[in-house]
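Appendix B, example 12.
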Amino acid sequence: MKLLALLVALLWLAACSEQTFIDKLATSQEQQTVKQLVQAARAGDVPAVDRYSQPALSPQVPKLVAAVRPVLRLVPGDFKIVGLNVFKMSGELTRKNYTLIGGAGDKWASVTVVMLGTDAEMDMAGFWVQAWNSDPLAANDFSNGQAGGFGYFVLAIAVISFVTCVTAVTLIWRRKWLKKRWL
């Protein structure tokens, strides 16, 4: 019964989409604010970026925009939020790290925006941009057709390892003479 419950839970988690999970962690207004912040940095709009920033970062905002704008300006299209980490800190303080990806062809960029504050008001506490020559999410694309001989070998080793572990645990638990099975 426990195995069935675990299987159902895993299937339910596998059915969740990335965007659904992000929507549960951040409101649509927060997501829109992060996208507007990236677009403002791309356009070189220092006052708009400063409006979203923490007051302590205001003196550094012009340098930040000057540093990230050349990379963001080359990236075509809009940015999509592909990841979000939420950290509850002491008291009511929360830190949210948004990861955005955008681009096409050989011009891509990943952007990490760190927002810090309470549930009522979040301000930018960090901004990081990385340029890429190809889609950074393409590394997650794996198909057996592209695996080749070595890929199938690694897959076979993984399956054999799993089967060996399950067999060993089953044999250990079926031994009546083995009193200390958990050791």
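The chain has a mean pLDDT of 82. The helical segments are 2-15, 18-25, 28-43, 46-52, 61-74, 148-174.
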